[in-house]
Amino acid sequence: MLKLENVSKSYSSGNVKAVDNVSFEVKPGEIFGFLGPNGAGKTTTLKMIVGLLKPDAGNIFINGLDFQEHSLEVKKMISYVPDNHEVYERLTGIEYLNFMGDMYGISKDIRSKKINEYLELFELKDAVGDLIKSYSHGMKQKIVLIGALLNDPEVFILDEPLVGLDPKSAFKLKEIMRDRCNAGKSVFFSTHVLEVAEKLCDRIAIIRKGQIIACGTMEELRQQSESKQSLENIFLELTE
Ligand SMILES: Nc1ncnc2c1ncn2[C@@H]1O[C@H](COP(=O)(O)OP(=O)(O)OP(=O)(O)O)[C@@H](O)[C@H]1O
Prior knowledge:
binds adenosine-5'-triphosphate, ABC_transporter-like_ATP-bd, 38% helix, nucleotide-binding, alpha/beta
């Protein structure tokens, strides 16, 4: 469903290779966690997957389509929840959701049904007429999540999605992720919350200094480490 083949990216301002020859695959029906220390290359990888950055080398495929050759078709099949939402500050919640609905060409009926359903779920109905700039971090996270769910993406891509969410909302988001995978779609997300990754993910990749140093199910990761314990132990050992 999502496939990276030998993807690399350097930033022009530095000699650092932010992402160095990265390959992995996220299968249909899978929740895939992307872990790594600060500055390891997670956000850079996510931005290339959603087309915000162009890889220097390598290929990215969604449902078998090469992103570079079929960028519009691919963008219709994915959704991205970034870790920073300041860009939408001057819209009200409902203006933003309608903007997202327009961008994805979602009909008024389906849009309004989904918006109501998710506003109810994330308890955001009362604030939807307010400017996003007045929202708390968690409320911004929720409105962006709702906007990203409107197109029912084949691959749902999230950068640190649990930061700022209260426990109830975090629980609901995890349920949404699982439901999507049960329906044969994929979820790919970065996180520093190892307990969540351990419980939620079908497979996990760990990136360090731009390179994938481990990838697989929890069981497979245990085989690749000496500690063979929790994901926290494995992560600390592998990223030393
Ligand atoms: N716009 C940029 N210009 C120059 N260097 C950058 C830029 N963005 C990221 N980098 C560098 O690229 C490397 C990877 O950064 P990236 O943001 O992808 O890491 P990350 O794993 O998402 O980190 P974190 O967990 O701290 O969010 C780091 O060395 C970072 O300093």
